[in-house]
């Protein structure tokens, strides 16, 4: 293989009962020879999906003919479509083990298969809203940013998994400034964009239309943008969200920063539903993930689409190269 050991991607198995094991195997089959990866999971959960190369050390030579897997024991078998809470601690511990490997240089990037939060709460008392918050805690980082990326568009929501009625209170100048700074730094470090162009959506229809449809743009967003522009940030906006995602508009910026979840995710999922990648910016290591859930309803049927996992692995590899 052409890759170096330092850029090997550690892939966590995610929820064993979901489509994670299937899409991991399909992605490995598609990408072997292009990049190096190894899975952290229970070999018994993968034995019926591919030949396995069981590892005791992630630094050994990896096979092109067998899925490299760093054995991590789980308490129960994999039953597609039926999460077993007794496997929850294994899922959580596999993530922590992967973070240790990337932080100690034994892997160059982390790619996580989807988890089932209810199963983790029931079986392991998991207290985090999701992967992102748990990874931030493991890395001892206070603020991270969620980016969704594809070949056509990159988006960042400032507020994420909260009710729409809570967005106005959650959207503070400090949060907006932190999001802009982390996103800018991530584009430079992880995407190799020396002078990033950031487009900011307004909160209100027509970006408030001069205060007639809301004053958040005038009183909250614009002062933050003006201050950062004085530091040299290339910031556009606040822009009307309904006119910033057509093809010509997308050519004018490298990322769109949006004020709430759906404002960011609807455009990218409309443009490129199957190949969007979830990226966590602000961590001391590279982390990507497919932009979908465990899909318990189709698990075990062999029909899961691996496109997002394939793109997540490719992006993790490119980001690791950029950091080098």
From TrEMBL:
Alphabetized Pfam families for the sequence: PdxA
Class in the EC hierarchy, top level: oxidoreductase
Entry annotated with the keyword NADP: yes
Binding of a divalent metal cation, residues: 161, 206, 261
Catalytic activity: 4-(phosphooxy)-L-threonine + NAD(+) = 3-amino-2-oxopropyl phosphate + CO2 + NADH
Keyword rRNA processing: no
Cofactor(s) it depends on: Zn(2+); Mg(2+); Co(2+)
Binding note for cofactor: Binds 1 divalent metal cation per subunit. Can use ions such as Zn(2+), Mg(2+) or Co(2+).
InterPro entries assigned: PdxA (IPR037510), PdxA_fam (IPR005255)
A single GO molecular function term of this UniProt record: 4-hydroxythreonine-4-phosphate dehydrogenase activity
Keywords annotated in UniProt: Cobalt, Cytoplasm, Magnesium, Metal-binding, NAD, NADP, Oxidoreductase, Pyridoxine biosynthesis, Zinc
Record pathway: Cofactor biosynthesis; pyridoxine 5'-phosphate biosynthesis; pyridoxine 5'-phosphate from D-erythrose 4-phosphate: step 4/5
Subcellular location, record wording: Cytoplasm
Annotated positions binding substrate: 131-132, 269, 278, 287
Entry's EC annotation: 1.1.1.262
Taxonomic superkingdom: Bacteria
Assembly, per entry: Homodimer.
Protein's job: Catalyzes the NAD(P)-dependent oxidation of 4-(phosphooxy)-L-threonine (HTP) into 2-amino-3-oxo-4-(phosphooxy)butyric acid which spontaneously decarboxylates to form 3-amino-2-oxopropyl phosphate (AHAP).
Database matches in PANTHER family: 4-HYDROXYTHREONINE-4-PHOSPHATE DEHYDROGENASE, D-THREONATE 4-PHOSPHATE DEHYDROGENASE
NCBIfam families the UniProt entry points to: pdxA, PRK05312.1
HAMAP family on file: PdxA
Family note: Belongs to the PdxA family.
Note: The active site is located at the dimer interface.
Identification of the protein by name: 4-hydroxythreonine-4-phosphate dehydrogenase
């Amino acid at each position: 293989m052409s890759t170096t050991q330092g850029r090997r991607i550690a892939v966590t198995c995610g929820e064993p009962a979901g489509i994670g094991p299937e899409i991991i195997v399909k992605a490995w089959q598609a990408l072997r020879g292009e990049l190096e990866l190894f899975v952290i999971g229970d070999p018994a959960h993968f034995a019926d999906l591919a030949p396995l190369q069981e590892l005791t050390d992630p630094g050994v030579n990896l096979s092109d003919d067998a899925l490299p897997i760093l054995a991590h024991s789980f308490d129960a078998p994999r039953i597609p479509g039926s999460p077993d809470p007794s496997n929850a601690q294994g899922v959580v511990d596999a993530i922590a083990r992967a973070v240790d490997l990337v932080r100690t240089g034994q892997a160059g990037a982390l790619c996580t298969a989807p988890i089932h939060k209810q199963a983790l709460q029931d079986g392991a008392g998991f207290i985090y809203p999701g992967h992102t918050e748990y990874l931030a805690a493991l890395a001892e980082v206070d603020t991270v940013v969620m980016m969704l990326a594809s070949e056509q568009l990159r988006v960042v929501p400032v507020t994420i998994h909260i009710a729409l009625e809570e967005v106005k209170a959650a959207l503070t100048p400090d949060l907006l400034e932190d999001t802009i700074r982390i996103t800018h730094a991530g584009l430079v470090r992880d995407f190799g964009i020396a002078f990033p162009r950031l487009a900011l959506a307004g909160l209100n229809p027509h970006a408030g239309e001069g205060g007639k449809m809301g004053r958040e743009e005038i009183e909250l967003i614009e002062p933050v943008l003006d201050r950062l522009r004085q530091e040299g940030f290339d910031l556009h906006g606040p822009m009307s969200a309904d006119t910033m995602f057509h093809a010509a508009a997308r050519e004018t910026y490298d990322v769109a920063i949006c004020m709430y979840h759906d404002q960011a995710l609807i455009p990218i999922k409309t443009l490129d539903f199957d190949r969007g990648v979830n990226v966590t910016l602000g961590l001391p290591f590279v982390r990507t993930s497919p932009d979908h859930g465990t899909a318990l309803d189709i698990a075990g049927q062999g029909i899961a689409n691996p496109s997002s996992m394939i793109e997540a692995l490719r992006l993790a590899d490119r980001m690791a190269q950029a950091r080098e």
